[in-house]
User: Fold this.
Amino acid sequence: MDAVLTAFGLVFDPSVLLVILAAAVFGMFVGAMPGLTATMATALLVPVTFFMDPVPSLGAIVTATAMAIFAGDIPAAMLRMPGTPASAAYADESFLMTKKGQLDLNLGVNVVFSALGGIVGVAFLVLCAPALAELALNFSSFEYFWLACLGLTCAVFIGSGNPVKGFVSLLFGLSVGCIGIDPAAGVPRFTFGNVDLMSGVNFIAVMIGAFAVSELLRGGVELHQVGHVVVPQVGNVFRGVAGVLRRYWLNFVRGSLLGTLIGALPGAGADIAAWVSYAVSKRFSRTPEKFGTGHLEGIVEATSSNNSAVAGAWIPALVFGIPGDSITAIVIGVLYMKGMNPGPTVFTENPQFIYAVFIIFVLANVVMIPLGWAAIKSMKQVLRIPRTLLLPLILLFCVVGAFAMTNSSYGIVLMLIFGVLGWFMEENGIPVAPMILGLVLGEMLEQNFMTSMIKADGAWLAFFERPIAGSLGVMTLLVWLLMLVRGARTALRRPAAA
Amino acid sequence: MTELNRRSLLRAGAAAGAASLLALPARAQGQYPTRPVTLICPWGAGGGTDATARIIGALLEKDLGQPINVVNRTGGNGVVGHSAIATAQPDGYTIGIITVEIAMLHHAGLTQLTYKDYTPLALVNQDPPGVQVSASSPYKDIKALAEAIKAAPAGKMKASGTGQGGIWHLALVGWLQAMGLQPDHVRWVPSNGAAPAMQDLAAGGIDIVTCSVPEARAMLDAGRARSLAIMAPQRNPQFPDVPTLNDALGINYSTGAWRGIAAPRNLPDDMAKTLVSALERAYKSKEFTDFMHSRGFGTIWAGPQEFADFMGKSDRAMGEAMKAAGLARA
Assistant:
């Protein structure tokens, strides 16, 4: 109990609170800038933390990342430009809502459910970190292989409309993911001797291209046409949010739980959590046909999920020093530097620091609401800028973001190529989201398949021998079977109806 | 009101970025460096190389009075970043941290670059590999493990720690050869780095991980893994209970990953001198020593000439090991 009191003392020190506030503003800014990710926010903070005490340095990271993951939703909703990859899953849906004139409600939902989802994640971090970490520790390449398969299955749900076109997009993403050095044998593939291609195709640069640049191209074409221009209302963003909570509380709970769990799994973070939650939400929705038309349900689930994953990722990081995502990979380094060696001992040796981290997590999610409100209000002014000025400005931000991903012009080239490509795809009814998912999960799928086969000396049954892998495998196969049966049934029914 | 909010937001963002600049002492113009220096890191943010680059960057910044920007150029097993350093202008405003991979990549046929394409400045770190097993493994010491490896049929035991042909793979190969076994007697399972390999070890997916002891530390502290030996000439003072291969098995085999600071080839001598003396002060500073020790990283100093010799030796050793393992393609 003493440790908890000490922790409160450590956190509620004016200088620490000031650091948290500054980090919050910094995180908001980074998150709202497309291409600047939460991971990058953390990396930028590291040199600053060299010269800081443990509590403020961890507080800065915790706050900045929580804010960044939320702030990524703002440009996604306003401009169809996900600010961080974690918002990519529902960028389309959010933007469609905006087109329907529901920007206020959408952003209000984003900020409130991000904060609530974050708090659920923290609750799990506080209450059952050791148990959840123990579960996550049982995952080896066999389990991850099935998870990647399940993740790819989501593509079927996120690509609205024609499943064949969704598959085309997914397979294209998987093929593009093959470019670079192959994860198992270390052999370069499709690189044509080009050094940049050896690093593969950066999915964030692709994401900026496929979502934002393609939207700019569309905007450019329609520049002088009247109509469909968003009327920026400066209304109350919180109006109607309580009703949403009453209506979609199940989505919120499911999204937060799934997000925490996915976050806790090493190698899968907030972005994958959002994709999976969005797909789950559509799969179990009573009105799946509304998805892809600017429907709130999936957004509620996914926006809760990605913020709970931020806290979830700390679970294996604190208990075993295993990063739950790319942010905590950096955090572990900072923990060592501050003499808080991760491991079960961190809870006994320096409990006051860990409690302080927990308190900051809660605090960060609470201040997210007023700060998020301020960010939304100020960002809304952006929509008042005439489109002839706004579009080139957005392009500028896209270029900066894409450059930042590779620290070279290679990122910009990728962004432009996939911008044009994404535009052509969407004009022909091929969704871009499955392509991004294929790119994100392709390497995970391949790497885990290859390492599993090497470990098992080529025996296929090994994918079902371990208890968790076996259950996941059977589950995946069942899902696929159900989908096939359903597809076959509709195919059979169609000629009969005609 | 809203206008004000946006401005304050932007201002705060800009202030966060500028804060580090303002903290610098002013310096006389004309003397190198007169503008910010880029320090390229070929590995991702958050890893050991990135952390080393950033602490050195922070210390050089204080010393030289100019901002040192650490820029991560990742991918291609390190080829992208190493190429970026080698192909930059040798004007003193781009330097980089180069790692053991520069002695390996050209043997694997992934690049033409060798250590000769750089102006070596200073070697700052070397970490030997350890031999880690899961806490539930039946092998309590390195002797038992070595005997089990010898007795097992080829390919039965699995080890991991990095990608195919990576430094920890070569460490395993070298150790197996020193025991008179075939390089693939223990099968290598490529992984995405040491942390995923340690997790797979704890999850029961593999038998051995040959990453460095600091990389394995969290799992060791958590009681999920045991470190049985290190492949170094001496024990690590931070892990005094872990014997060397020589102590325990009488095998005189040692290797290691290293990191050093280098510039593109043909860096003017006066700039090299400025950088080397600043690096030496950084290396000797309390901040650097404390930082490296807190992460468990080994420290070693070698100036330009010794660093070049060291890299030449490393290059030959890696070439031989890779040829023996059938990993060399060039």
In short: The CA atoms of residues 24 and 233 of chain B lie 42 Å apart. Chain B has a mean pLDDT of 88. Chain B touches chain A through 73 residues (CB under 8 Å). The longest helix of chain B spans residues 2-22.
